[in-house]
Amino acid sequence: MADIIPISVSLSSNAVRESSADFPVYAKILHLGLVLSVTFELWNSLAALWFADFTWFPLHVLAGLILTGWLVLTWLTYLLTPWGRHLLATWFSWRTPRAVAHDISGLLRGKLPSHGVQPGLSSLWQAIFFIGVSVVTFGGFIGWLVLRGNLHLPGGAQLGLTLMRLGTPLLAYFWIGHVFMAFYHALRGDALWRIFAVWKRG
User: Fold this and answer.
1) What is the DSSP secondary structure assignment for residue 137, as one 8-state letter?
2) DSSP assigned state of 59
3) What residue ranges in the chain does DSSP mark as E strands?
4) Considering only CA atoms, which of 172, 177, 158 is closest in space to residue 44?
5) Residues 191, 139: contact at Cβ < 8 Å?
6) Taking the model in full, what pTM does it have?
7) CA distances in angstroms from 14 to 36, 42, 82, 200, listed in the order given
8) Is 201 inside any structural domain?
9) Is 180 exposed, middle or buried (0-12, 13-18, 19+ CB in 10 A)?
10) Residue 113, pLDDT score
11) Which of 27, 33, 46, 166 is deepest in the core (most CB within 10 A)?
12) Is residue 60 part of a domain?
């Protein structure tokens, strides 16, 4: 296991009571909601895009609206809570390039990269995936509003459709990698599944 690279983060006057490695209950609930909604939207979109299978497509718009609202709530939580700001700080830390290089170097030597709320390859992957999901989802929402006539934005509908067509396959690769590494960590005995234990903190 790669060494943990500490970071210094200035949060606010309110101290973070839980360890930065812990996941507060609200973070677990947000994560579970993202897992379910993103997975449904992603594979439903791929079924329509690649296989012309529209079995579940009537629910696509409803699920997309739910995901849009969930992402807004998640971004607000990340920006307005000490734990969320700490998470963002690990994603965009000046230490990230060095930490990623450290993890890749260890991976090439057969050492599994570090995971959790700290700079590194895992956090970079999560950041790119989350931002990508946000861009594609918000773009699709804007396109939907334009098509409904609720928003006048020249090219808005085409922008939304393009983001979804191009972004969905890319996000699928990130999803596959994310899930694969999660299971691999779990098989090695790392306590990853605690993030789904919404009934307790930690």
Assistant:
1) H
2) G
3) none
4) 172
5) no
6) 0.80
7) 32, 38, 8, 22
8) no
9) exposed
10) 67
11) 27
12) yes
Segment 85-143, tens digit of pLDDT:
999 998 888 888 888 888 888 878 877 666 677 888 888 888 999 999 999 999 999 99
Which region holds residue 115: left if phi is over 0, alpha if psi is between -120 and 50, else beta? beta
> Quick one: pLDDT at residue 108?
81
- What CATH number should be reported for the domain holding residue 156? 1.20.950.20
Determine, yes or no, domain membership for 202: no
3-state SS class at 111: coil
Domain of residue 95: give its range. Answer: 25-196
User: How many CB atoms lie under 10 A from the CB of residue 198?
Assistant: 16
Q: What angle do CA 123, 124, 130 make, to 5 degrees?
A: 85
* Residue-level pLDDT at 100: 87
Instruction: Tell me, yes or no, whether 189 lies in a domain.
Output: yes
Dist. CA 146–CA 151, nearest whole Å: 5
Q: How many structural domains is the chain composed of?
A: 1
CB atoms within 10 A of CB 176: 10
Q: How confident is the model at residue 21 (pLDDT cuts 50, 70, 90)?
A: low
- Look up residue 192 and give its amino acid: L
For 199, half-sphere exposure in the C-beta direction (CA atoms, 13 angstrom radius) is 0
